[in-house]
Amino acid sequence: MSGKVNASKLALELIKDGVVLGIGSGTTVEVFLNLLGEKIRSEGIKIYGVPSSYQSMLLAIKNGIKIVDLAENEPEICIDGADQVDSKLNCIKGGGGAMTREKIVASASKKVVIIVDDTKLSEKLSIPVPVEVLPFSYGYVLRRLSKMCKPKLREGSGKVGPVITDNGNFIIDCDFGVFEDPKSVEQDLKSIPGILETGIFHAEMIDAVIVGNSKSARIVKK
What is the annotated role of this protein in its UniProt record (predicted)? Predict the structure, then answer.
């Protein structure tokens, strides 16, 4: 059994009847939602969801979750994945391009649990940091970023040209190499007008990380 499945199964134990769930995005969240759909059907429970992307919204609907929004609901728990998690539980997210809405949903939630397989663990953060950028500001932002890191516009595989987020913006992936101070990196990035959000999720936002492998899963807390 995959690490994603085992992590998702352990996360399911946190989900109770009637909960308002913040829903992240990505392949691990897809596994989790499909398992949650089985739980909903077998136990006859009701789950309300605030999705962070069109992908998670469609998956939630498919699995019997009632869609609600942040205007009237505060999620009791948010379940999301991550692209990398360091030893202090800082995360990099945004491989799926939904980090802005993911960060909003996570910030609005009373509790945030990240689910990953053990291949996503690293002593320090090192993968490129995605940033969401207003298209109008792209040229200016790229010049500013070039002085800080190795920036690269993310281009689509199913269409010609750049990936467009659910918010209608571009994504630039910023390669800083290995870095130890996520807060400082995020502050530098967000000081550039035109950058809306980054894929850095500080450990202070995260209540727990569930790590799965082929045999089991465990909960890691700060």
Answer: Catalyzes the reversible conversion of ribose-5-phosphate to ribulose 5-phosphate.
**Active site positions, annotated:** 102
What pTM was estimated for this model as a whole?
0.95
> pLDDT tens, 70-96?
999 999 999 999 999 999 999 999 999
Token representation of residue 129:
């940091």
Same fold, 3-121+202-215 and 129-196: no
3-121+202-215 CATH fold: Rossmann fold (3.40.50)
Which among 2, 1, 61, 7 has a CA at the least distance from the CA of 32? Answer: 7
- Tell me the binding residues: 25-28, 80-83, 93-96, 120
Extract the annotated binding site for substrate. Answer: 25-28, 80-83, 93-96, 120
From 39, 50, 183, 147, select the one nearest 106 (Cα to Cα). 50
